[in-house]
Amino acid sequence: MTSTSTGGGSGMFRRKPVDEIADETGEGLSRSLGLWQLTAIGVGGIIGAGIFALAGAVANETAGPAVLVSFLIAGLASAAAALSYAEFAGMIPKAGSAYTYGYAVLGEAVGWFIGWDLLLEYTAIVAVVAIGISGYFGFLVGELGAELPAWMLGAPGTGDGHVVDLFAVVLCLLIAFLLNRGIKTAARFETVVVGLKVAVVLLVIVVGFFHVKTSNYSPFFPFGLSGAFTGAATVFFAVFGYDAMSTAAEESRDARRHMPKAIIWSLAISMVLYVLATLVLTGMQNYRDIDSESGFSSAFASVGLSGLASVIAVGAIIGILTVMFTFMLGVTRVWFSMSRDGLLPAWFGKLHPVRRVPTRVTWIVGVASAVIAGFLPIREAAELTNIGILLAFVVVCVAVIVLRYRRPDAPRTFRLPGMPVVPVVGALFSVWLITFLAPETWLRFAVWFVIGALIYAFYGYRRSALAGRPPGAGPARTRPGQGGDRARAARPATAPSRVRRAPPPARAARRSRRR
Fold it and tell me: What does pLDDT average to over the chain?
């Protein structure tokens, strides 16, 4: 049998063998998800603010009708990374996604820092989305004629009398509660809500199609081709989500076959909806008149269908809610994996004895995201969300090239086409997008990086499951029934038998006389 091991390296660049990751023992997460549930989680993470808010802003300010081209460029670049994720997902059916892939191929230090970054990025995304939903909720309450106390309507500094964004706080805690009910229950909820969201998007597309005026498409590139590329850099953040979904590999019933398909299907479905929605949006209303904050609402109002605006607002709330679910699921599974590998205390990786979910980290993430959502303005919270995900894309794209050339004979249920061009495109596009990030984002990233380096140096490096194991050693043993506990160092395959001590001379003499 051909080994798929890529173990090796030493020190901070020691690598966890692929076959060991795939065959880890111990009671782990509950495998309950099928192909369409995984796809729904992916679609839930991708489709959200991209359709309901971002498309209108980019059309009005950056690209005009060429926002369609912006989404296509971003989709192609995202697809390059998605195919890299798909190849890994078919080889390593374990929780952790980019953290686990980087650990196995590029070494422990790379895996640690990607995992550490994603802990912050995913948590911040949950908070940002909660703030966005809270804004739509406030709009609907106002439309109904109700008036809420000012203190609960936003973070300090976002308005007169604002103390906390209470609705955003409640949403974060509600998603944490839902995830703690077990992955099967949570996935059912996600599948139903994603179905409602897609139905709303299709309603918008079908109704809007009958009000399209082709004259609104001219000029198609009012800001030039550069405007379409700049728009692609903006909307790129609306076309990922499969990365968070891939962290649920360990909860799939047949991850090796289903995960690659779910990644590709979720991106494909989302891109078709994005393209159709942008065609309708810019065809219904001239790009100059599109509202940057509520594009579809203004477009439908412009053709006398303002009554549909409330339906769109409800659809936006439902659509964005699924993004919270996907990314909170992602951060808890990355944290669980890092704890199981010993890089963080095993206490965090403790699973619920019945539901088989990491309840402790789920509540920690729920509370942390609630604090961010409740007390930070959306702009400051959003600045925490970008760099870690882009770096994860770079790592996965580079790692899939390295593993393909290091172990070309390793069994793969999916092989990305166009090696190495496709992953190189994905890596370069991600690096290009990183150059658009503000200096404040780099400063926050540097602070988080330093904190992570200290934790790894004084805890993770020494307590790692691979600590003290020579390159190529056999799999580490895990404590039975403790899926989140740190793996113990491997024992020798052939332990020496116990040597029986020779009896004292007096005792030997007595035995001789008895005989």
Answer: 82
Are 443 and 383 a contacting pair, CB within 8 Å? no
Report the candidate in 290, 466, 302, 447 with the shortest Cα–Cα distance to residue 384: 447
Beta bridge partners of 477: 488
State the SS3 of 352-386: CCCCCCCHHHHHHHHHHHHHHHHHCCHHHHHCCCC
**For position 32, what pLDDT does the model report?**
85
Cα 140 to Cα 144: distance, rounded to the nearest angstrom = 6
- Rounded to 5 degrees, what angle do the CA atoms 242, 243, 249 make? 85
- Helical pair 108-143 and 439-455, crossing angle rounded to 10 deg: 130
Angle at 499 between CA 493 and CA 503, to 5 degrees: 170
pLDDT in tens, 179-201: 999 888 888 888 888 998 888 88
Cα separation, 302 vs 119, whole angstroms: 42
Which of 427, 345, 406, 419 lies closest to 9 in space, CA to CA? 406
Q: What DSSP character marks residue 486?
A: P
State yes or no: pLDDT of 9 exceeds 70.
Answer: no
Does residue 60 contact residue 287 with C-beta atoms inside 8 Å? yes
Coil vs helix vs strand at 414:
coil
Helix (H, G, I), strand (E, B) or coil at 488: strand
Place of tokens 């100059």: 288
Q: What is the dihedral of CA 387, 390, 395, 398, to 10 degrees?
A: -140
Average the pLDDT over 113-125 and give the result: 91
pLDDT at 441: 78
Going from the C-alpha of 199 to that of each of 324, 366, 412, the distances in angstroms are: 19, 29, 35
Count of positions (residues) in the chain: 515
pLDDT at 6 over 70: no
pLDDT(450) > 70: yes
387-404: per-residue pLDDT in tens? 778 888 999 999 999 999
DSSP class per residue in 76-144: HHHHHHHHHHHHHHHH--STTTHHHHHHHHT-HHHHHHHHHHHHHHHHHHHHHHHHHHHHHHHHHHHHT
pLDDT for 428 beyond 60: yes
Q: Which two tokens stand for residue 117?
A: 């970054």
Amino acid 382: pLDDT = 67
Which tokens in the block code for residue 70?
A: 């912006």
Query: What sign does the dihedral 411-416-422-423 (CA atoms) show?
Result: negative
Q: What is each CA distance from 226 to 50, 79, 235, 248, 289, in whole angstroms?
A: 20, 21, 14, 37, 21
Is 253 exposed, middle or buried (CB count within 10 Å of its CB: 0-12, 13-18, 19+)? middle
454 residue type, one letter: L
The pTM of the full predicted model, rounded to 2 decimals, is 0.81
- The span from the CA of 141 to the CA of 200, in Å, is 20
